Amino acid sequence: MIKTEGIVLSEMRFKDTSKILNIYTKNLGKIPVMAKGAYKANSRLMGSTQVFSYNEYILKKGQTFYYLNQGNIIESFYNMRENVERFVYGSYILELIEKSSPEEEENLTLFLLLEKSLKILSELNDGFLKFIVAFQLKFVSFIGYKPHLNTCVSCNKTPISDIRWSNIEGGIICSSCFSKDMSSIYINKHIYKAMIELLYIPFEELENINISLKTLKSMQSLLERYILFNIDRKEFNSFKMIDMILEN
């Protein structure tokens, strides 16, 4: 038997009463878990197999799945479902983790980021876009693609003006190095400054900085493309829901 802690990223019904879960665990990374009988009305596994929930698990490893023997709730994060924006941005976080993580590859830093992000988001009432941009920057750094921001990623000089962002180079490039990536895009000084601030600031201090909605929208879109580029995906389903929120 294996004892670990984990957060449910997604669930899929299996036959009439069981679930197949993707769980991001503290010790094992992302793992597929079979929860037999979890859909039964009186199942002792019902609470610990809900999406968003953070639980302590006892598992048995099989050939295809880990099998859930016991689950104890540490934090249900139930109030994620009581606010549309919490739910949408929370779903985006779970999808990012699920789609970017290989199975059974431990990343304790990423697990702790996920747990802390859900805790803060579950209590958030405003400032959702600023929070998710900060999350994107921290997330992409923790999976190995930390943006190079302080100097030009190509020549290492400090850019003064005409700063561009390059997905290919993984950060900013100066006017002398534009030819290294002709698909790079211009970013203004507000985006550049905000990216540095949000990369390093703790979530608890986000309310202390002011960033315009226009700048945050530009950053969110830029980072979305950067993440997709690096994990070789075309889109995230939950991003469509974020788009709908931002359009209103």
TrEMBL record:
The keyword DNA repair applies. InterPro entries: ARFGAP/RecO, DNA_rep/recomb_RecO_N, NA-bd_OB-fold, RecO, RecO_C. Residues 1-77 form the DNA replication/recombination mediator RecO N-terminal domain. It holds the Pfam family RecO_N. Coiled coil: none annotated. The keyword rRNA processing does not apply. Keywords: DNA damage, DNA recombination, DNA repair. GO terms for cellular component: bacterial nucleoid. Belongs to the RecO family. HAMAP family: RecO. PANTHER family: DNA REPAIR PROTEIN RECO (PTHR33991). NCBIfam families: reco. Involved in DNA repair and RecF pathway recombination. This is DNA repair protein RecO. It comes from Tissierella creatinophila DSM 6911.
